[in-house]
Amino acid sequence: MCALRVSIVTNAKQDTKSYTDKIFPAGMEVLLHTEQELLKDIENVDVLIPGHITVGADLIGKGKRLKLIHCGTGYNNVDIEAATKQGAYVAVTPNVAAQSVAELVFASILTLAKKIHTFDATMKSGGWKTSDFIDVPELMGKNFGIIGYGNIGKAAARIARGFGMKIIAHDPNIRIEEPDVRAASLEEVLKEADFITLHVLLNAQTKGLINKQRLDLMKKTAILVNASRGPVVDENALIEALKARRIGGACLDVFEKEPLAKESGLRTLDNILLTPHIAYCANEALAGRYQFFAENCALIAGGKPPKMAVNADKLKSAR
Question: 226-237, pLDDT tens digit by residue?
């Protein structure tokens, strides 16, 4: 087994260290780098765990020793073609954050739909309700629409069942077989759902998937949740729909550009709930994430391909 230098890109070194201590195989040098520190040391790195930074062709080209670039759920921040040309695997992390993301989806829905954040602010400012007519819905019996029925979509469906919701889902790549989940077209989900959650990868087909035309299909009371990737939703179109009250509201954990600009129009709306890309960050999910990183590093050190490598077939054919 060869020694590896593993770079984990993070601005929270002490917190990251609490998850990485003692889980990587002996003999590996695990480095906690800021993005600037990585740029200075990339030529000496064997395994890169980049977090949210962009891993473009220029950076990959400088990483002459790169054997593995290890992402979380998505890999849209990595130039796959450049990595493959360099001979580096690009791997993703399976299912460890599905429950964490699904729970945030429902925490967000409940906070916005039940106006919890509004009433909390009222109470903390010394106020009290002025009426019993607070205009909030129950979830039971409502249509819960899932766009993207992979591990996270299925985890969201399990929670929806507990609320007694009717589940409809759309995924052109997955056969939906559960008897209580109705498979539907994208347009049907948008038109019928009271709550819609997005769980798709970002690619050429899903970029801008939720645009003005599709927002116009939604019910005026519907709430849209995006905890997948920001560019799946056209933010300008969403801002206009929310301002005009064409939909009931939105909960966003991801954005077209991150971090979200301070002057973003999203920050000015009263019918939106914003969180800073933290859906995957439950303690258990992070522990599972780093454990999987360590296991794949051990495979690389032993001369074996990593699990969940999205370019494994191309690398295999090139060797």
Answer: 999 999 999 999
Q: For 96-147, how does the pLDDT look when each residue is reduced to its tens digit (9 = 90+)?
A: 999 999 999 999 999 999 999 999 999 999 999 999 999 999 999 999 999 9
Identify the three-state secondary structure at position 195.
strand
Q: Which of 29, 138, 258, 284 is catalytic?
A: 258
Task: Catalytic residue, from 52, 65, 182, 277: name it.
Answer: 277
Specify whether 33 is catalytic: no
For the residues of 223-260, what is the DSSP string, one character each?
A: EEEE-S-GGGB-HHHHHHHHHTTSSSEEEES--SSSSP
Which amino acid is present at 246? R
**DSSP secondary structure letter of residue 41:** H
CA distances 183 to 27, 144, 190, 223, Å, are 49, 12, 13, 20
- Active-site residue, 35 included: no
Catalytic residue among 70, 199, 214, 229: 229
Q: pLDDT band at 20, cuts 50/70/90?
A: very high
User: Is residue 229 among the annotated active site residues?
Assistant: yes
Report all structural domains of the chain as residue ranges with CATH numbers, in order of start.
Answer: 5-94+282-318 (3.40.50.720), 98-274 (3.40.50.720)
Give pTM, 2 decimals: 0.94
